[in-house]
Amino acid sequence: MERNQEIEKLQEVFNQTLKLISLYKKTGLPVPFALKGNLGEFIIAMNLLKKFPKCKVDYRGGAFPGIDVFIENVKIQVKTQIKRPPEKFKNGEWDNESSPTIKKNTLDKKNVILLFL
Amino acid sequence: MILYLNEDFSEIKKSNIYIFNQEDFRYFNTKFCWSGKSKGDYTIVNVLYVKGNAPPKLKEKIDFYNKSEYKELFNKTKEDWNKIESLLQLSSRKSTTLRMVDATNTHAICLVGHMQIGTIYNLYHREMSSLHPSLYVVPSEFSHLYMTCNENGDYVLKLRDTAEEFVEDLVQANTAGYYMMFHRAIPKNLAWAIFVEVSNEVNRMKHKVISWESLETTGSSLLEKEKTELVH
């Protein structure tokens, strides 16, 4: 499959996933973690395909335990968070970007080479 | 990756991508992670701003991440695609020649030859690459690693106390090819480096592993000791 086709394929799935997430949001249902995760994984995979056109990029998206994308032999895990609004407290507020939970072994045993947040 | 979505989640307004390599993993913490206490899982927080006085318990957690080192980390890792570039360059390298450089303020040095680099990238970081593209410096947390000879004259990697699994992985990853590694914790301010030339032939490598440059620094006596250990 040509690189452009690979990107288009991922783009299409990405678009549909975003639509589905939006549907959850509109209907007031909680958005499944897996869908949010997929969104980030698609974005990273597409970026890698574009930025490293000569490298083999292998999107796994959860099919390979703990590893979402390979680029050549580099193992990547993608953590995706939808930005939350600032958190208020009694006399103020704070804002942050935070990572979803990362399993202890992922970092302790260095099961991945790169972690995308 | 942090996604900034519009109100109905139908559009991505902005996304921030932070790229962490294994050297950055030490910044992740159990604080603010719901399963941090129970399972030892991790998270990381980029504090954007704090207004007013947070309640004491919350403040303690915010303060942990609201430090300059975390701000620098997030600045440094944002869209840092060079990290991948570096990994891919390493993967394609078949042999490595390391030259003498002024490695002042270096804690430790790791030399690596032909190997399956992707697996062991975590040993390096690229700060020294401006001095020489083939020189990588091992973060100080790996100071428990060292190299020695076994009874067959092969150089093998040993560990002092911890990280056993890591080292096993390292060795296994290289059984198909070969690798060369030396590591020693080095006190600061010792300006020194190691010469290594690694050929693609295993036998040659065994006999031509390391040569040392004479040093004009306070580290020379230490190096002489190292040299003796390695050669024998």
Structure, briefly:
The complex is a heterodimer of chains A (117) and B (232). With 117 residues, chain A is α+β, with helices and mostly antiparallel strands.
Overview of the molecule:
- The complex is a heterodimer of chains A (117) and B (232).
- With 117 residues, chain A is an alpha+beta fold.
- Chain A has 3 helices and 7 strands.
- Chain A has a 4-stranded mixed β-sheet with strand order 1-2-3-7, covered by helices on one side. A two-stranded antiparallel ribbon of chain A has the order 5-6.
- In chain A, strand 5 and strand 6 (92-98) form a beta hairpin.
- Chain B has 232 residues and is α+β, with helices and mostly antiparallel strands.
- Chain B is 29% helix and 16% strand.
- The termini of chain B are far apart.
- The interface between A and B is large, with 55 and 60 residues.
- Strand 6 (92-98) of chain A pairs antiparallel with strand 4 of chain B, so a sheet runs across the interface.
SS-derived structural category of chain A? alpha+beta
Quick check: average pLDDT of chain B? 55
Write down the overall geometry of chain B: globular
Record field, number of beta strands of chain B:
9
Chain-averaged pLDDT of chain A: 88
How do the SSEs of chain B run, as a string of H and E? EEEHEHHHEHEEHEHEH
Helical segment tally of chain B? 8
Q: What radius of gyration of chain A results from the CA coordinates?
A: 16 Å
Summarize the biggest pleated sheet of chain B.
3 strands, antiparallel
> How many individual β-strands of chain A?
7
N to C succession of SSEs of chain A: HHEEEEEEHE
Q: State the end-to-end CA separation of chain A.
A: 28 Å
Distance between the termini of chain B: 50 Å
